[in-house]
Design goal:
- This protein has helices spanning 5-8, 13-70, 75-106, 203-215, 220-229, 236-262, 316-321, 335-338, and strands spanning 177-179, 186-188, 266-278, 281-292, 304-310, 328-330.
- The protein has 8 helices and 6 strands, in the order αααββαααβββαβα.
- The strands form 2 sheets. It has a 4-stranded mixed β-sheet with strand order 5-4-3-6.
Length: 349
């Protein structure tokens, strides 16, 4: 006769209870061992992630020191530096995530200590930020004896940094009309000033649109999508119209800056690549920079820089930029610069 699992079950209730208790004890032991192994693995993983983040941070620090010491400013070096920062960012996030997981795993056992990362002391929050005091409810009675005769001894303050979500609003500029009881002439305050024609966008919104596009490299379609999610639908053409109007409003300031830069007898010139979204691909544009800075030579005039954009690197662009200027141009050996007579060779790049 073949024995089955059912035959192994005792008929006696006491024996059955003892067998069940033993089975539960074995299950608890196995669960404890599994929790121990899981905690040990989590702690080991957290330590490995922390080591990887530390190594990446040290490599990034060395790279920054090398750039500061040797002045490496090539495009390849800049791309490598950016890639190293992205790698460090990912490793740092992973290390913190693994640290929290190890802490949670260690809390399920008493035999493994959680892994705590060594962090530099956090800098205090800027003093210019407003402080909002939130006083936690005080205890009504002593937690030791239950007495109610409590006297304030002091306080501990823990600061957390918070951000107030962006709030949209519509400002109504009201121009009341008045009629003269003597001559029946209607009087009204003049319309408020707007930086752009048909100024439906306030100065704060206009500045945000321009900064997001040119300072943060956020295309207008991305901005339109984000604004729509916040409950303010603005079409792409509407935003583009404001960008053009804002550029026109800033043109007098640009002309003043351009005149100041091109009034110098010595300029530093260079160009750098700029990724440009094109149909079905990413194109490469050029940003041309001309800097006026005579401080190293004892000059007292304020330094300044002017930028021009082009879709390619043809030599006609610097020729156009500097058509009405004469002086010493310190630049690299690009043909568009070399064609200018009297320019310095690339020792100053």
């Amino acid at each position: 006769m073949v024995a089955t699992a059912q035959d192994a079950v005792p008929d006696d209730i006491g024996a059955l209870r003892a067998a069940l208790t033993a089975a539960l004890a074995r299950a608890e032991d196995e669960a404890a061992r599994a929790a121990l192994v899981e905690a040990e693995l989590a702690v080991a993983r957290a330590k490995a992630s922390d080591d990887a983040a530390l190594i990446a941070h040290q490599h990034l620090t060395i790279r920054k020191l090398q750039r500061a010491l040797h002045g490496q400013s090539s495009e390849r070096s800049a791309r490598l530096h950016d890639q190293m920062e992205l790698t460090f960012e990912e490793l740092e996030s992973t290390a913190t995530e693994d640290e929290i997981a190890a802490e949670q795993a260690a809390a399920r056992t008493t035999e493994v200590a959680p892994y705590m990362r060594k962090r530099p002391a956090r800098q205090p929050f800027p003093e210019h930020l407003p402080r909002e005091r939130v006083v936690e409810p005080a205890p009504a009675a002593c937690h030791c004896c239950g007495g109610h005769r409590l006297r304030k001894l002091g306080e501990d303050i823990t600061e957390t940094l918070e951000v107030v979500p962006r709030q949209w609003k519509v400002i109504q500029h009201v121009r009341e009309k008045f009629t003269c009881r003597d001559c029946e002439t209607i009087s009204q305050a003049p319309a408020p000033f707007h930086a752009t024609p048909r100024g439906w966008a306030g100065p704060g919104l206009l500045a945000m649109i321009l900064f997001e596009k040119f300072g943060q490299h956020q295309p207008l379609n991305r901005q339109a999508e984000r604004y729509a999610r916040e409950g303010v639908p603005l079409s792409l053409s509407t935003l583009a119209d404001q960008v053009g109007a804002g550029a026109a409003a800033l043109m007098p300031l640009f002309k003043q800056l351009e005149a100041h830069v091109l009034a110098a007898s010595r300029l530093h010139g260079d160009d750098t690549t700029v990724p440009v979204l094109a149909k079905g691909k990413t194109d490469t544009g050029r940003l041309w920079t001309y800097v006026r800075d005579d401080r190293p030579f004892g000059g007292a005039d304020p330094p300044a820089a002017v930028f021009y954009y082009s879709r390619d690197r043809r030599g006609e662009h610097p020729a156009t930029h500097l058509a009405g200027w004469s002086g010493i141009l310190q630049a690299d050996a690009f043909g568009g610069y070399v064609k200018r007579s009297g320019d310095l060779t690339p020792w100053a790049n």
